[in-house]
Each structure stands twice: as structure tokens, then as C-alpha cells.
Amino acid sequence: MSSTEDPATPDQPPTKKSKSDDIDEKTMYKNEARKKGVVDLNLPEGFKDLSTVHVPIGGLFDQPQTGKEWHKYKLTQEQVDSYWTNGYLPNIRVLSEDQCDKLLEDYKVFLDPDKLHPGHGLFFEFHRNQGGDPNNVLLHALGHWRITAAFHDVCFLPAIAVPSSQLIDPSREEVDVRLWHDQLFAKPAKHGGVVAWHQDYSYWTRTKPMKHLTIHIALDDQTVENGGLHFIPGSHRWTRNGMPLPITDDNFADMESIKGILTEEEKADFKPTPSLLKKGEASFHHPLMVHGSYSNRTDKPRRACVVNYFADGVISDTDDPLLSQKEPVIPKGCKMEGQFFPIVYKPQWESVST
């Protein structure tokens, strides 16, 4: 897809007209939950913002040094084809259990309700419980790559950056990849909340063209019972007049709210499929893939980290801040780059011989 094409044109023609086609686009993609997650705290003197470091800091993985070392992370053609057919690719091993445990040590501080990490002021958003129901708790945060070395380096992880270069552009050409933002999703034992069905790009229409990708990494084994990630295969082709489905629940709490705007054909194809990720496995999914997760009523927590990428060359489609009110504005029509959107992989690195 070239940058002059419709940013949300799918591989196949859109489905028949839905009643949601009549919704004002100015309100369809409004994310009111961002306002509730605003972080307005000062940093301790001397605390380093890791978004100024655009290479791995070290300690989580060994950075590839040769083209051969980069190449080992590439997907097979069969895996690439499966992604474009179904809209997602699950169960790709990207972290060891030891690496997950290192990340979970940092996670513990973010989950502690009695104290804040010294770098808490660097979060773009932080929702202690996004839905607000104490019986259905969902911690959701953005920006932790700026705060701890381990989460910083996840964003540069070759095991996710290299495959993303193969999957992120509808042309199926390998492209340079930049960080969009990272996320944490945590569901406590016994009263973990849901993440309602949604398409990620519904929240990202402030960018174009639609050359994005989401990687969800399980830090605990995910099951049907503990609220593991589910997908609706083929739903990456569901659009409204070339745009994604509208946002139906800012706070993710109403699991089935999306069904109110689906066509009869889409409802018939609405067949949730669990990813059943093991600890350290990831799923890669298309920005229009309808996905969500049910509540956690088990005796153990369900924690995950998410990395969102876009292809180099994507531009801002707004004159408002892209992630929070604190970072510099990238004017509408300008390329997204700079401190908060570093390059994480270039295909040319595979040609490095030493």
C-alpha cells in the first residue's frame, strides 16, 4: 500500500453497509479513557528517561551482531501467509521463562497500590483499574519502556522486531519498523476484568496510512479460564467505508458491546478463538483484527506486555499530541519519528557480515 492510498483499505472489499456507517466520524474514534489515565507527576531529580536511548541497554537479551544472527528470527512463508489469511499469528516463542521473570520483577512495582515507581511520571497513560469496577480489575498502562531497562529492551527485541518487518506492510515487502507505543495489561487473581472486543486501529486513526502491528507477549500462561487473549479469525477485513469499526467502549469493560454495530454477516462469523499463549510466547495481530479477553477468576494473576509498531514513513494525522499532553506535537502530515518513535529494525541489518 502506498502512502497515497486509503489508510484502512483491506485486502478484500468491505462488508455490506451497517447502521454504524451513519455515525459521525468525529465521535466514532474518540477515546475518552485516555483522559482518565492522564499522569501528571514530576520526576525525581536525575531520573533518566529511557526514551532518549534508541538501542538496547542490555541485560535482557544479546543483540545480534551479524546478518545470520538477525536472520534466525525470520518467519517462514507459511507463517506469513497464515497471518494474512487469519489476521493474526499466535504462539511464537519470543522470551524464555527467565526473561519473563525479569520483566515480572519490574511489573510488581507497577502493580503495587501502596507506592509508585520513581519513574511513574513518565507513563503516557496509567489506569490502576480502567473499568472502575473493584470486582473486575484491569490494570492498563502505556509508556513503561521509558522507565525500566528490561521493558525498554522488550521494544527492541529481535524476536518481535524482525517478524514485524515481514508482516507490517500490506505490500508484504519487508520494511523499516518503528516503535509506536508499549502497553501493560494485568488481571489479578479471582477478580481480573475483561478487555472488550475491539480493533486496535480504531484508537489509532490519528496516524496514517494503516501500517501498524500489535505484538502481545504472555508473561504468564494464558488459558480460557484466566482471561487469555481471543481472536475473531478473518475480522481484519471488517471495515466501515474504508475505516475501522467504531469504538464501542472506551474503558474495555463491556465485553460484547461491539456486537451492537456488527452486520448480520459479521455476527455469523463471530467465532472467538483462544490464542492459548504459553509464558514467553507472543501473538502478532493485524491492526483491524477484532480481539479481546474475558475475566480472570483463577487463583493466579494473568499479566502481559504489548508492543505496537508502525512502518517507517507513517505520518501524523492530527495537530494534537499523539500519546499524551507532555510530548512535542508532530504536526499533521509530518513523518512520525524522533525521541518517542525510534527505529527498532531495518531489513538491511540482515546483510551485516561482521
Give an account of the 3D structure:
The protein has about 350 residues and is of the alpha+beta class. The chain has a single domain (about 70-350), classed as Jelly Rolls. Helices cover about 15% and strands about 20% of the residues. The protein is built from eight helices and 14 strands. The strands form three sheets. Strands 1, 2, 3, 4, 7, 10, 12 and 14 form an eight-stranded antiparallel beta sheet that branches. It is globular and about 55 Å long.
Provide the helix percentage.
10-25%
Strand content: 15-25%
Order of helices and strands: HHHHEHEEHHEEEEEHEEEEEE
CATH superfamily: q2cbj1_9rhob like domain
**CATH fold name, please?**
Jelly Rolls
- Let me know the largest β-sheet: 8 strands, antiparallel
Specify Rg, calculated over alpha carbons: 19 Å
Average of per-residue pLDDT values: 91
Count of separate DSSP helical elements: 8
Count of beta strands? 14
Shape summary: globular
Structural class: alpha+beta
CATH architectural grouping: Sandwich
Stretches where pLDDT is under 50 for at least 5 consecutive residues are 1-22
User: Which class in CATH terms?
Assistant: Mainly Beta
- Note the gap between the termini: 34 Å
Taken together, the total number of domains comes to: 1
